[in-house]
Amino acid sequence: MDRILTLEAVRLTESAALYASRFMGKGDENISYKSAAEAMAKVLTGMNIDGVIVNAGGEDAGNLVDGACVGNKNGPEVDMIVKPLDGKRTCARGGYNSISAVAISDKGAFMKVPLVYMEKIAVGNEAKGVIDITQPVEINIKRVARAKGKYIEDLTVCILDRDRNKKFIDDIRKTGAKISFITDGDISGAVSTAFSNNSIDILMGSGGSKEGILAAAALKCLDGDMQARFVYTGEKEKEYIAGFIGDPDMILTISDMVNGDDLMVSFTGVTDGVLLPGVRYFSGGAETSSILLRQKTHTLRYINAIHHFDYKPIF
Question: Does the pLDDT at position 60 exceed 70?
């Protein structure tokens, strides 16, 4: 892929973050997400790519849906995962950890997944190869603690605060490990495990499947590790999953979820969080903070951008 696409990827997430952040704390989840999606779709229209969205976020995102063709066709063929706003509830309530995210790859790199829940376990490079989603919570926590040279009591596990994760939460507490709860959007929680300056050591629990593939793409760029399996509640949902991957009980490795060798992933903070600060406004403009990852070169870029609305109208 053309390296110019790296900056284009950041433009996508920056625009979505700028639009979504205008509605921070205003209590309307749908308008936060819709505004982010509209902004991202507008930028995509002028991008020099012949792209297909493999996995979209699942919410009402206008033209950003699974299978949608994007770009102006004057560029390379690529596949994409888009999440204009991960953490729309958090953004609407003025909370932490809302981000905009996108992943771009060569054709066929991303696993196409159904819109269901997915159980996940994610870690950074230090614990790569030691996790096993088929093992009890206690075993995985002990393995990660040993790999990172930490006492279990010093380990922090990130998990979505949901009733469906109650068993995980109870089991984590029994080990003595600390818990960092997130109310919405677990992409940042998973990716944070790969940053040594972050307090999160493991992500566990059930979250969105499409978000899981995007997180796996980022972790692959950061040489982290992740495993997942789908969660279903009945035969109908089991058959739905089987229509995508064949075996609904398959244990997915990070290479199953993302098998390309040229990936780009961009995140931009919408609200302040563990991964990035949110959009900061000043008179006549705003500042955005982004992370850009490229697997091929193992490059990680932090990009702070100043946007002057008099010269580049946004709203």
Answer: no
Q: Are residues 68 and 42 in the same domain?
A: yes
Residue ranges making up the domain that contains 241 = 117-257
Nearest-angstrom CA–CA distance, 186 and 208: 8
Bridge partners, 281 (sequence order) = 286
Residue 48, C-beta contacts closer than 8 angstroms, at least 6 positions apart: 4, 8, 71, 72, 74, 75
In contact, 218 and 226? CB cutoff 8 Å: no
Q: What is the pLDDT of residue 4?
A: 75
Q: Work out the burial of residue 304: count CB atoms within 10 Å of its CB; fewer than 13 is exposed, 13-18 middle, 19 or more buried.
A: exposed
* Per-residue model confidence as pLDDT tens digits over 27-56: 999 999 999 999 999 999 999 999 999 999
Q: Are strands 299-308 and 285-294 parallel, antiparallel or unpaired?
A: antiparallel
Confidence grade of residue 132 (pLDDT, cut at 50, 70, 90)? very high
Residues 151 and 219 in one domain: yes
Question: CA-to-CA distance for 292 and 65, rounded, in angstroms?
Answer: 23
Contact 100, 83 (CB under 8 A): yes
Residue type, 240: Y
Of 92, 12, 87, nearest to 57 by C-alpha is 87
